[in-house]
Amino acid sequence: MIREGQITLRPATELEDSFLQSVYASTRAEELARVPWSSQQKDEFVRMQYVAQKQHYAAEYPKASHDIICVDGIPAGRIYLDRGADAWHILDITVLPQFRNHGIGTYLLGQLLAEAAQEARPVTIYLENFNPSLRLFERLGFVKDHEKGFHCLMKWQAKP
User: Fold this and answer.
1) Euclidean distance between CA atoms 47 and 41, whole angstroms
2) How do residues 75-85 score in pLDDT, each as one tens digit?
3) Would you say residue 2 lies in a domain?
4) pTM score, whole prediction
């Protein structure tokens, strides 16, 4: 069970690019396990995709916060959030596999939703419709706003 103060956020820096790339790689590990590429090819693919994602986020959401999720001071994941005037959009929240299923995501999202409720802001996130974390977001009150291909925009709004 998560204790108060156990989960903290701190701004990501350029010096942590290697760690952030490893967090990104953890989201592609299952997919890449099925590909008949060498380790070097997989590493290069992940690096290229990470750089592309990073550039996309910087271009589309220049004011977004990029934070490292820490558990008892140990880096355990990342959360990227754009606090727009009309809505807050979670660009990414990823917890490393060894830290998953311990309530970290639930705790962080609960804190975020409580803050968004105080600010009267809806919160959105795009998820693939096969993403296991979809259940977590639904449990927290997110609903499908719309779907395009295998992506769906999930939206949360505080109850009046």
Assistant:
1) 10
2) 999 999 999 99
3) no
4) 0.92
